[in-house]
Amino acid sequence: MKLRHVIIFAYNSSQDPLVQGGFQQVLLHVAAAQPDLRLHLITYEQEQYPMTSEQVAAQRAHWAAQHITWYPLTWHSGRFMILKKVYDLLVGFLLCLRLRVGAGARSIMAFGTLAGGLSLLIGKILGMQVYNYQYEPHSEFMLDCKVWKPTSMAYRSLHYLEGLLGRHADMLSTGTHYMIERLKAERSPAKAYLLPSCVDADRFVFSDVGRAAVRARYGLSAAQPVLLYLGKFGGIYYSHETAELYAALRPQLPLETHLLVVTPDEPEYVTGLFTAAGVPASAYTITRSPFAEVPAYISA
After folding, report:
1. Distance set, CA 289 to CA 128, 210, 214, 245, 297 (Å)
2. Whole domain around residue 156: which residue ranges?
3. How do residues 135-158 score in pLDDT, each as one tens digit?
4. Together in a domain, 99 and 225
5. C-alpha–C-alpha distance, residues 156 and 173, integer Å
6. DSSP helix/strand/coil, 111
7. What strands, in cross-sheet order, belong to the sheet with 258-262?
8. Full-prediction pTM beyond 0.90?
9. H or E element: which one contains 79?
10. How many domains does the chain have?
11. Strand duo 68-74 + 37-45: pairing
């Protein structure tokens, strides 16, 4: 059997919920359905998703059993962001070059628009077909949410890359009919597919065991009312509004109601939001969860 090697480029941490929750499931499905494929997964690991050496080894072995070879790189941000992105691109390019020459990879699949823009540059230089999974105008989201200004280098750079993707990628998949029609209106030559966001109904099911375990972990009784906030704060997501909403709801809820805040954000930052909204520390718990345990938190 002749093997086909495909580079998978994700400018995210391997433990990012976006990767664990959706993208990983796509890769596992593709690898199982096409045994001649060998996927080479490149990720950029972030400090906010730390892993022990044992966890890294376990993740590597899990993917290797599915014919997915993992190449964890380091993600850089902060001051001099553009220079750091250029450095990340260079490191990714050199790895892709090695896979193009050594493994004979002829195509590259990117997760998200930023990774798609970087993959387009890499793919065109190395003569590979480029597929962007989850194509979206992310720069426009950042502009609409007032995270970036239209004159900022971050907005202008990503917006330019998104335009290049629409005009030069070989294949795009996106989550809405609007984007499919927009690509047609812009005369994109790419093969475009609609892949809407969805929930794995086999994984996200109620669990009595998970409910009991989560409540026991945080000292919550079986009958105690519990609310769950599962997500991030700030950026394109609500920040102080979430805490203020809970503060406004509390007078209408049973006195013993407890809020579980499951977030990758720093606890000190989130605590500050709830303190500013006047919510006592006894009324909520801030924690984080690996993707595999999320159904248990929802069950709680």
Report:
1. 37, 13, 11, 23, 9
2. 4-194
3. 999 899 899 988 899 999 889 988
4. no
5. 23
6. strand
7. 226-230, 258-262, 284-287
8. no
9. none
10. 2
11. parallel
